[in-house]
Structures are given as structure tokens and as C-alpha cells.
UniProtKB/TrEMBL annotation:
Family annotation (SUPFAM superfamilies): FAH (SSF56529)
GO molecular function, one term: hydrolase activity
Regions annotated as coiled coil: none
Entry similarity comment: Belongs to the FAH family.
Residues in the signal sequence: none
Organism, as annotated: Tateyamaria armeniaca
Protein name: Fumarylacetoacetate hydrolase family protein
Keyword terms of this UniProt record: Hydrolase, Metal-binding
One Pfam family it belongs to: FAA_hydrolase
InterPro entries the record matches: FAH (IPR051121), Fumarylacetoacetase-like_C (IPR011234), Fumarylacetoacetase_C_sf (IPR036663)
């Protein structure tokens, strides 16, 4: 199943995507709600609403304004170094243990929303990433059982303000500027993808310019290994998000000059079988003026 959360002229809803069209699941059953949490928490509700889809009316996917798949995710954990060539281009040693950091709620936003370059820096970088959403929580999850805890996979652009990321050994500042982490718009359940969403082409682009191009099969730590590792120290909850790192080709490592994102550009992150997360780049001053005018 491919899900999308968003807004149409009829309001906020959860949709089941079928090609270029989508069925409003919230209209079929109000218990679905307006983000994925009800479906994540209640597999029986999933079965019930799927049974009602046959013959249900649909709307064009293009008519839906994307929203976050989970409106208020509890924990957002990101894996920083998970592709060997990306580790090398950043000047790091290949780690024995995954580099993990966290993002706050204000740092993320939906596909289609502006990605904001802050006033204090022009070094806004892109990072194409596979992201998973936890369906079944737990602690001390074994690698063998880990994938049964996944509700679905989505696309993430881990927008990073590089000079602030490098200010300390902890990456928190550069990874938590408001409105820099784009998620969605689609969430695909594991039954529609290869095991662990491995072997999928992953790419970032601005227009015809290909910035990154790799394959999720090149990850050092798989989805299952990452879930197992994180659950050694943290209890995972339904709706938690885990981002699985970016491949080589990021802007700060481009030669001879870094390739930063510029206001007016649109950055696309695409993962095979899941979809495209597309976001315009805006300057913070313009973004603030736009919000104030609404």
C-alpha cells in the first residue's frame, strides 16, 4: 500500500495512492483520522478500510497538498554515516558503530513545503535519505525481528547547515534549523518493497542536475540492523521516524567548489518504488514575510 497524507478542498485526510489517483480513506472511515497514526496503531482498522476501497471515488494525487505523514512524531533519529563513499568524501573514518543524532519537531516539514536557508548561513546542503516509520514499538528488538516493527518507508531530505554542523563534535545545530528536514509525501508499506527497502535507486536533483545517485543496497547498516541497534538503548514507539543516512555527492564535498542550495531552486529527492520529495528553497527573510502576510 502507498499512503499519502494531505489536504484537498474537502479538508485533511489520509489517502491510498493508486497510480496518479488516490482514494480518501478518511472519507471511508472517520476513524482513520488525518494522519497515519490511527492506521499505525490499529492493523485491524487497516484491513477494515482497505475492504471498503473497491469502487470508492478517487481524486488526482496532484490535487493533494502534502502534509507530514505523522503530524507529531515522537522521536526522530537519524543515522549520519551509512554509505562508505559518503564517509570518505566527508573526511571521516569508517565507524564501528553508527553515528546517530536526533532532530526536533520544528526542524521537519512536509514535501512541497519551503526548505528554509537561514539568515545566518548560506551553506544549506541536501541529503537524500531513506526513512522508515515504526509501526510496532519495543526495546531490545532483535535484528531478525526488526523489520516486523516497520510500518512503512518514506523519503527524507536531511537539509544540513554545514558550518553550524561543524561548530562542535555534536551535529545538533546544523541538523536542527527550522524547516530544513523534508519528509514524504508517500509512505509505502514493506509488502510493496524489497526486504528492508534495500536495492532501491536513491537520487537527489535540482532540475536536470543530478547531485547524488546511489542505491540503498549500499548502506553499511541495514534498516534491520539500525532498528536493533537503536532499541538497545531506547524504547521505540509507534510513529517514531528513523532516517538511514545519505549516499555520496553532498554539496559540501563537491570539487572544486561546494554546491550549496540557493533560494529559487527546487530540490528533488527520489527513491525508487516510493516517490519524489520535492521542496523549493527559500531565504528565511522571505519565508518569515510570507508567513506574516498570511
Amino acid at each position: 500500500m502507498k499512503y499519502m497524507v494531505g489536504k484537498t478542498s474537502h479538508g485533511d485526510a489520509v489517502f491510498a495512492v493508486q497510480g496518479e489517483n488516490a482514494i480518501d480513506l478518511t472519507a471511508l472511515d472517520a476513524n482513520v483520522g488525518t494522519d497515519l497514526m490511527a492506521l499505525i496503531n490499529d492493523p485491524a482498522l487497516v484491513e477494515s478500510v482497505v475492504a471498503k476501497m473497491d469502487g470508492a471515488p478517487s481524486v488526482p494525487v496532484a490535487s493533494i497538498t502534502p502534509a507530514l505523514p505523522v503530524a507529531q512524531p515522537g522521536t526522530i533519529i537519524c543515522l549520519g554515516l551509512n554509505y562508505t563513499d559518503h564517509i570518505k568524501e566527508g573526511g571521516y573514518d569508517i565507524p564501528d558503530y553508527p553515528a546517530l543524532f536526533m532532530r526536533g519537531r520544528n526542524s521537519i516539514m512536509a514535501a512541497g513545503s519551503p526548505m528554509v536557508r537561514p539568515n545566518c548561513s548560506d551553506k544549506l546542503d541536501y541529503e537524500a535519505e531513506l526513512m522508515l516509520i515504526i509501526g510496532k514499538g519495543g526495546r531490545h528488538i532483535s535484528e531478525a525481528d526488526a523489520l516486523s516493527h516497520v510500518f512503512g518507508y518514506t523519503v527524507f531530505n536531511d537539509g544540513s547547515v554545514r558550518d553550524y554542523q561543524r561548530k562542535t563534535h555534536q551535529w545538533t545545530p546544523g541538523k536542527n534549523f527550522d524547516q530544513t528536514g523534508a519528509i514524504g509525501p508517500f509512505v509505502v508499506t514493506p509488502d510493496d518493497l524489497p526486504e528492508g527497502a534495500s536495492g532501491l535507486k536513491i537520487e537527489s536533483r535540482v532540475g536536470d542536475e543530478i547531485l547524488q545517485s546511489s542505491n540503498t543496497g549500499n548502506m553499511i547498516w541495514s534498516a534491520a540492523q539500525t532498528i536493533a541497534t537503536i532499541s538497545e538503548y531506547a524504547t521505540l514507539e509507534p510513529g517514531d521516524h528513523i532516517a538511514l543516512g545519505t549516499p555520496p555527492g553532498v554539496g559540501h564535498a563537491k570539487k572544486p567548489n561546494p554546491r550549496w542550495l540557493i533560494p529559487g531552486e527546487v530540490v528533488d529527492i527520489e527513491i525508487e518504488g516510493i516517490g519524489i520529495c520535492s521542496n523549493p528553497i527559500v531565504d528565511e527573510a522571505d519565508f518569515v514575510r510570507g508567513v506574516a502576510a498570511e
